[in-house]
Amino acid sequence: MAENSVKVANVDLVGAGDLTFEPKQMDVQRYTHKSGVCVTWEGDGWYDECRSWFVSSYIHAGISGFQMTVWGPEAQDLLSSLHINNVYKWPIGKCKHLVSLDDEGLITNHALYMRDSEDTFRTTAGIPNAVIGAIESGSFKAEYKIDFVYVFQFSGPKSLTILEKLTETDLHDVGFLETRMVTIPSLGLESELCRIGMSGTLAYELRGPKEDGPAVYAAALAAGKEYGIKRLGWRSYPVNHSFGGFPQQTCSFNTALYKDPIFREASLEIFTPTGSVDPE
Q1: How confident is the model over 1-58, as pLDDT tens digits?
Q2: Which of 149, 177, 208, 261 has the fewest CB atoms within 10 Å, i.e. is most exposed?
Q3: Which of 2-11, 34-43, 129-138, 162-171 is most confident?
Q4: pTM of the prediction?
């Protein structure tokens, strides 16, 4: 194996240049490609990774990627028209999992949205084709933009301790589904903290610009070393959601957008679809 290569599904990836959001680590057991980028497939071994959210904490970078921000006087009405959730009883600074359906009642998107102001919302790690389509059609007075961000997930009894050490801040008062800006003093960087998790245990996310990702990941890993933090990869990520009893898009079920010709054409460049999304 070349000196600067990493393991990707049994194939050497020289230079690891596609590791956009997390640092290259030569002791990671396996990397893989997901949505056009390289992510950890198996970090510290499936057994230790799955045990981590019971006894310590994990760090997971696999849902890092695009972030869509929607704003405008009719942004809330837009989200209401496309999702089954009540988006009007939604405090600023809180999150919701929004679910959108197609005309046959099949799920086209299931993702976390953040409310930043009266008329501004954000989402990560979803497939918001319907939202983008409605805005571009001119049906609503709203706009959107796409950024790329790191999203690092922490879950387990030591997750709060690790994040408080990383940020040198008391975070005990952060409520469930609440977001807050924090500073990482060792790096001089700001990050968005959110208390949210799918494993049924104490859990958080850190989010920020993609260029800060590798440094933040490395700093969090160092902060958690004494507490037994583990690097959770995509191999065990679906297991995490199953333990918490949370069905999750791309883990428990596929999107029904496979019938959308634009989505189908784009996804075939990075995915090989199998199975069915039809409950029948």
Answers
A1: 333 333 333 333 333 446 789 998 889 988 887 777 788 999 999 999 999 999 999 9
A2: 261
A3: 162-171
A4: 0.86
Nearest to 135 by CA among 127, 126, 145: 145
Render pLDDT for 202-217 as a digit per residue (tens, 0 to 9). 999 999 999 999 999 9
How far, in Å, CA of 223 to CA of 204, rounded? 15
Measured CA to CA in angstroms, residue 213 lies from 15, 28, 163, 193, 226 at distances of 18, 17, 15, 14, 21
d(C-alpha 257, C-alpha 270), whole Å: 15
Q: Is the C-alpha dihedral spanning 10, 16, 18, 19 positive or negative?
A: positive
Residue 140 neighbours by CB distance under 10 Å: 20
Identity of residue 168: E
Reading the block at residue 11, the tokens are: 């194939």
- What are 267's two structure tokens? 């996804």
| CB burial of residue 3 (10 Å; 0-12, 13-18, 19+) | exposed
In the chain, where does DSSP find H-type helix? Answer: 46-55, 75-82, 129-136, 159-167, 213-224, 237-244, 261-267
